Amino acid sequence: MSKLKSSGQQTADAPTPEDAFHEAAALEDHPSAPRGSKADGPVLSADGTPLKRSLNRALRMQKLRALMLIAPLLIFVLVTFIAPIADMLFRSVENQIVSNTLPRTTQALAGWEAEGADSAPPEAAYEALYVDLFLAAEAKEHTRLGTRLNYEETGLSSLFRSSGRDMDDIGEDRIDALEDANEAWEEEGFWYTLMTGGEGAAGNTALLDEQRDRLEALTGDSYAADIGFVPGQAISELLPRTARAYAAFALYTVVEDEDIVAEEEPWERVKIALTQDLRDPATVQALADYDGPGAEELRAAADLSGGFEEIDFKQTFLEIDEDWGNVDNWQTIKMYSPPFTSGYFLNAVDMEKTPDGPALRDEDERIYGLLFNRTLFMSLVITGCCIMLGYPVAWLLANLPMRTANILMILVLLPFWTSLLVRTSAWKVMLQQQGVINDTLVWLGLVDDASRLIMINNQFGTIVAMTHILLPFMILPMYSVMQTIPPSYVRAARSLGATNWTSFWRVYFPQSVPGIGAGSILVFILSIGYYITPEIVGGTTGTFISNRIAYHISSSLNWGLAAALGSILLAVVLILYWAYDKIVGIDNVKLG
Q1: In angstroms, what CA-CA distances link 26 with 29, 46, 56, 463, 574?
Q2: Tens-place pLDDT, residues 137-170
Q3: Which of 6, 21, 514, 553 could join 590 in a cystine, given CB atoms 3.0 to 4.6 angstroms apart?
Q4: At CB < 8 A and 24+ separation, what contacts does 498-506 make?
């Protein structure tokens, strides 16, 4: 016995590579220290290198091998756990669609403050909306924007959808007059030659890059390929609005339509921009000295455009839809124009953004607080039911003879061999008013046939079904801990005069608490995120917050709100986990 003990002690105190490393470092730091019979100087390894450097290299290799062994697990956790959580947190605050789709409009609204129901934005905001919405409608992005804003203000989805269809009709009389005066404005090649400035002209690559960035922000794609078009420097300075509109048209034609710019007639937006540029007195004066391609056509068009009145964009949008005069719609666009927003989190706690700051929603619209409270309460009830039902079963598994315990273990594991959907549907059949349980109670005379119990589509049905589904997750951790408790402890307590209850409560139960803790954490976390079972048997009063998250992901497509709800749920679970660690101690949780 002494030899074994001595051997164990020697093994425990055996030198490690780290000890050798520290000893070598000490010898090098203090060369005058005694070293036995060896001469003073750095300690060398067999190959002649200093021992400290050799050990340091060996330790690095050892750590690198350990890292390589766990690298697959780290990558798996990063890809399947950390990355989705990070993406969820980002989606809960991301709001770039408004600023990317309506950049000029949001800029025009930056200094606007609504002072009443009739204080609509200035004319510049409506003109900016026309420029932004035209391109968004061509890229089919205006409907996505309307859907996003409709989460905050009902009716904006249909407003953007209907307005996008009418963008081509704005200024139609001006376009017809321009083309009737000279057919050159209908020719694709003429426009291309005009906007490139002719052969050898300096290209305005800055303008092209500006429009490229605009289109990339709008569609979310990258367009680095050459499109075969660069706006001419002279024409860009002479007709700035037209050059920007044509550059956007050219980019869209190549990257989205995959057509050739010189073979496509420009958008109506380009021709409207031309009439606006030609009404500028400075442009008319500069045309006198312009001798590039299309000079004569531009001068004739300038004379024609001078007879046009300025386009009243505000009145034009009001004719398209009178809701463009609603100040609330414009305030919603302005409030959600920053690239990041707290609106999703406010909605998740039954609040909303207003021009005066966050405010509670109307009482009949507060549903998420109720769902969070219901989820936590029912998860705790389900966990408690699993403890009460699972503890006796786990005790029997740990104390019955092996043959009997194995049969009982098969019965515990049997639900895992059956589909979750089948088990939940079975409870729906069992618990309904014309189901097996009600029929049995009526047959026994315990319940009147006209007063059958309502046990489905409510909280009771959810608790019963989920307790049955999650019970094995409570039994197995408790059983693994109870199996390690020596039966002799309880017998010793009884031999000392303790009653059966005292020996159980004072001796056996405290040793089984770690298993209860492990099973409780497992069952609670699983139940708080369940949505299939509550969806089938919960009805309107037995659903969880996870059901609402699934609805926003699959039906309403409000992924931002779903991400905010999921983030809050994650935070609640982490807080409860922290509280459990402080009260019980996570070190006391064992699986055997």
Answers
A1: 5, 19, 14, 65, 45
A2: 998 999 999 999 999 999 999 999 999 999 999 9
A3: 514
A4: none
Residue 335 resides in a domain: yes
CA pair distance 583, 579, nearest whole angstrom:
6
d(CA 285, CA 269): 24
The rounded distance, in Å, linking the Cα atoms of 520 and 76 is: 27
CB under 8 Å to 368, separation ≥6 — which residues?
A: 347, 348, 349, 350, 545, 548, 565
Positive or negative: CA dihedral 25, 28, 29, 34: positive
- Checking if the pLDDT of 269 tops 70, the result is yes
What pLDDT does residue 8 have? 42
- Are 197 and 159 members of one domain? no
Q: Are 121 and 297 in contact (CB under 8 A)?
A: no
Q: Are 242 and 274 in contact (CB under 8 A)?
A: yes
Distance, in Å, from the CA atom of 313 to the CA atom of 335, rounded to the nearest integer, reads 22
Q: Would residue 395 count as lying in a domain? A: yes
* 269 and 151 assigned to the same domain: no
Give the span between the Cα atoms of 201 and 250, in whole angstroms.
18
Contacts of 548 (CB under 8 A, 6+ apart): 367, 368, 371, 565
Neighbour count for residue 397 (Cβ, 10 Å): 21
Q: Are 140 and 215 in contact (CB under 8 A)?
A: no
Exposed, middle or buried: residue 287 (CB in 10 Å: 0-12, 13-18, 19+)?
middle
CATH assignment of the domain containing 518: 1.10.3720.10
Specify the DSSP element, H or E, that contains 358: strand 357-360
φ, ψ (nearest 5 deg) of residue 39: -75, 155
Owning domain of residue 60 = 17-27+42-91
Element (H, E) at 238: helix 233-238
pTM score? 0.79
Phi-psi region of 258 (alpha: psi -120 to 50; beta: other; left: phi over 0): left
* Token digits of residue 579: 């509280």
Q: How far apart, in Å, are the Cα atoms of 156 and each of 141, 160, 162, 539? A: 14, 6, 10, 31
Position of tokens 């969070």?
Answer: 372
Query: Are 150 and 214 within one domain?
Result: no
Contact by Cβ (8 Å): 222, 255: no
Q: Exposed, middle or buried: residue 50 (CB in 10 Å: 0-12, 13-18, 19+)?
A: middle
3-state secondary structure of 51: helix
